[in-house]
Every structure is written in structure tokens, then in C-alpha cells.
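Methods, example record. To illustrate the input and output format used throughout this study, we show the complete record for Methyl-accepting chemotaxis protein. The sequence lines were provided to the predictor; the line carrying C-alpha cells was produced by it.
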Amino acid sequence: MRLGPLAVPSPGEVVDTGRSVFGWFGEVVDVGARLPSRVDALLEEVTRLVGVLGTLADRVDGLVDRADTIVGRVDGVMERVDGVLGEARRITAGAEEVVGSARSITSGADEVVGSARRITAGAEEVVRSARTITSGAEGVVDDARKITSGADEVVASARGITGGAAEVVESARRITDGADEVVTSARSITSGADEVVTSARSITSGANEVVTSARSITSGANEVVESARTITTGAEGVVGDAREITGGAREIVEGAGATSRSAQELLDLYRPMLERGAPLAGRFVEELSQEEVDAAIKLVDELPQFTEHMVTDIMPILATLDRVGPDLHELLDVTKDLRQAIDGIPGFSFLKRRGSKDDENA
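The corresponding predicted structure is encoded as:
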């Protein structure tokens, strides 16, 4: 409909336009009614994401706690290594004492062996002296045998003279005086031979005494030699024990050396990290409170349930963030447009204030 130059809508067009506006307004109201629930759901989702981030932060704190625990363990290992080094030093000192004792025992054994050698040399000299005395005794016995043989020859000569005297009885009778002198001389010779035999027997008895003394000396020397052998055997046993102790000490020293090398490798490996982490760890321990420790313990107790929720609830949400993000931005843009449109409706502010009063009265 036109009134002159102006185009005036007809009542039907006005009614249709009003119906369209009211329909659009109803849709806007419907969207606005559904919007708070979707916004609440979005806020809940955001809250859950914030909780997840807080949980992740707590896990990071837990990892820091574990790092501190590891640092503490490393300190304990270093203390144990220091203890092992001290023990190794004590063992080394003990081994040196054992080696010194072994050297003293070896020196004593050398002295015993030297004494045994000197005793053996003395015994050999005694044996040589005994052999010399025995040889002299044998010479005396040979001289006695020679004297006895000479006496036998004299007796045989006397018997021959006596036989000749029987043959020359007449001549003997004539030279009775000479025969008596000969008999007297023979008797004197026999008496001298008896004296020689007695002297030989005395010499033989003295030689026997010398031989007996030599045997006693030899027996004593044998006892000394046996004692020296016993001492030498005991010294060999002591030397063997000292060698065993030295071998055990050597094994202990080698084990202590391997332990020291391992400890040095650990120190070389962890020293840079500990030097950098010691100030941070000290600051962390200074600022750590009992409530935080209790919270960390509680968090560790809740780790199984947290892991289950993380796997079943949070990880699927994180997997869909790349698709939900654009939808959220679009929804926020639509919400902003709707709010601007609603604020532009005449009388909407009055309805909003009225609704607020109704809510307060309720």
C-alpha cells in the first residue's frame, strides 16, 4: 500500500512481520533458555580441565619430591661410599700391620734358620771331632795289636831257644848260667809285654770312654738338630699362615680397590648434578611444610584412582580438544551476538529487572 510517495505496509504485512518477529523472538528465547545449560556444561568442562591442570601440577610436584628422594638416596649412597672408603682404609692399615707382622715372623724365621744352620755346623764339627777321636783310638788299637804281635814273636823265639836248649842239654848245662840269664831276660821281656798289654787295655778303655762321650755329644747334637728341625717346621707353618693371611689381605685390598673405583665412578657421575641440584633441594626443603608433606602422601595414596580417571575420563577429553576448540569459539561468538540482540530489544531490560526482583522475592 502506498500513500503518495510513501510506501506504507498493509495491515496483513504488519501482522506477518509481527508474527515473524515474534517467531524469531521465540527462537531467540529458546536459544537463550538453552544457552545457560550449555554454558554451565562448558564451565564444568573448563573446571574439569583446570582440575586436570592442577592434578598435573601436583604430579610435577610429586616428581620433584621423587627427585628430592633420589637426591637423598644419592646422599645416602655417598655416605655409604665414604663408609666403605673408611673401611677400606682401615682394612688397608690392618693389611699393612699383617704384612709387617709377616715380615717380623719371616725375619724371626730367618734367624731361627740361621741358628739351625749354626747348630748344624757345630754338630758337624762335633761329628768331625768324634771321627778324629775314633780314628786316633783305632790307631792306638793298631799299636796295641802290633805290640801284642811283637810279644808273640818274642814268646815264639823263647820257645825256639828252649827247644834248642833241649837239644843242646849238654851245652845248656855248660852254659846254665847263660841260660838262666836268658830266661831272666825272657821273663823281663814277658813282664814288659804284660805292661804293654795293660797300657794298651787302658788306652782302649780311654778310647771307649772317648767314643762314649762322642756318642753322647752326637746324641745331644741330634737332639739339638731335631729341636732345630721342629723350630724350623713351626717357622714354616708360621710362614705359611703369614702367606695365607697376606693372600687374604691382598684379596680384601683388591675388593676394597674395586669398591673404591665404583664409588669414584658414582661420585664422578653424580657430582655435577648434585652440585647444581643441592641449592634447589636446600631451598625446597626449607620451604616445605608439614601440610605439603601430608598432601603429597595423600596424593600418592590417590594415585591409582587418579590414573584410572586420567585414562578413562581426561585423556578422551584431551583427545577431542582439537575438535571442540573451534566449536567453543563459535558458541561464544553466537552467545555474544545473541546477548547484543537481546539487549537491543525494547523493554528487555525491564523484563530482566522484573525477573531479578521475582527471583529475589522467591
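Annotations derived from this record:
The chain is about 95% helix and 0% strand.
The domain at 23-288 is CATH 1.10.287 (Helix Hairpins).
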